[in-house]
């Protein structure tokens, strides 16, 4: 069981036994691969990252595509990792970003780490209907909500992102080993 910091909320472990652990190196490679695909889809004038998961891939993509106009949209759902509740927009996209291009997101790139059910992407797409939506990973229910992604995983697979994991001591197999 994961140790929690004081004041942290407990998260239920996923019910699926399908796990997809992603290391920092693998995530960086996948985010760069996404940037390669996006390079031919632009040009983009700005990037909007969906917090919090979109922050890391957006930083990598901004570097690779030379984007300097960076915005966030903050959408939260309070859930137990089995059931997602109603989404709440904590921070909307700035009017100056919405005004780019056709005033509906043309020329704006929206980035997230994963599209799972597609609910978050649909909320953001209402704000920027003509933006290009990209995620590093996609599950089948979320695929229709994005324009570009790198890796599809099954709906019942739990992705363990590197920022959600930490190193921990593991007992040796031979506990009485003196060495």
TrEMBL record:
Per UniProt, 5-phospho-alpha-D-ribose 1-diphosphate binds at 52-53, 112-120
One GO location term (cellular component): plasma membrane
The UniProt entry lists membrane topology as: Peripheral membrane protein
Keyword list (alphabetical) reads:
Cell membrane, Glycosyltransferase, Magnesium, Membrane, Metal-binding, Purine salvage, Transferase
Q: Which reaction does it catalyse?
A: XMP + diphosphate = xanthine + 5-phospho-alpha-D-ribose 1-diphosphate; IMP + diphosphate = hypoxanthine + 5-phospho-alpha-D-ribose 1-diphosphate; GMP + diphosphate = guanine + 5-phospho-alpha-D-ribose 1-diphosphate
NCBIfam families in the record? PRK09177.1
Q: What is this protein called?
A: Xanthine-guanine phosphoribosyltransferase
Naturally occurring in which organism (per UniProt):
Bosea psychrotolerans
User: Coding gene?
Assistant: gpt
């Amino acid at each position: 069981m994961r140790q929690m910091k004081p004041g942290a909320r407990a998260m239920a472990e996923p019910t699926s036994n399908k796990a997809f652990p992603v290391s920092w190196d693998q995530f960086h490679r996948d985010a760069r691969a996404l940037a390669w695909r996006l390079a031919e889809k632009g040009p983009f004038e700005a990037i909007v990252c969906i917090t919090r998961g979109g922050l890391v891939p957006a930083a990598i993509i901004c570097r690779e595509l030379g984007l300097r106009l960076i915005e966030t949209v903050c959408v939260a759902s309070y859930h137990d990792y089995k059931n997602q509740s109603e989404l709440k927009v904590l921070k909307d996209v700035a009017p100056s970003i919405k005004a780019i291009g056709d005033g509906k997101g043309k020329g704006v790139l929206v980035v997230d780490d994963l599209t799972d059910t597609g609910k978050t992407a649909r909320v953001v797409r209402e704000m920027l209907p003509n933006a290009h939506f990209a995620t590093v990973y996609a599950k089948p229910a979320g695929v229709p909500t994005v324009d570009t992604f790198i890796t599809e995983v099954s709906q019942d697979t739990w992705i363990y992102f590197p920022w959600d994991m930490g190193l921990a001591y593991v007992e040796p197999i031979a506990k009485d080993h003196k060495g």
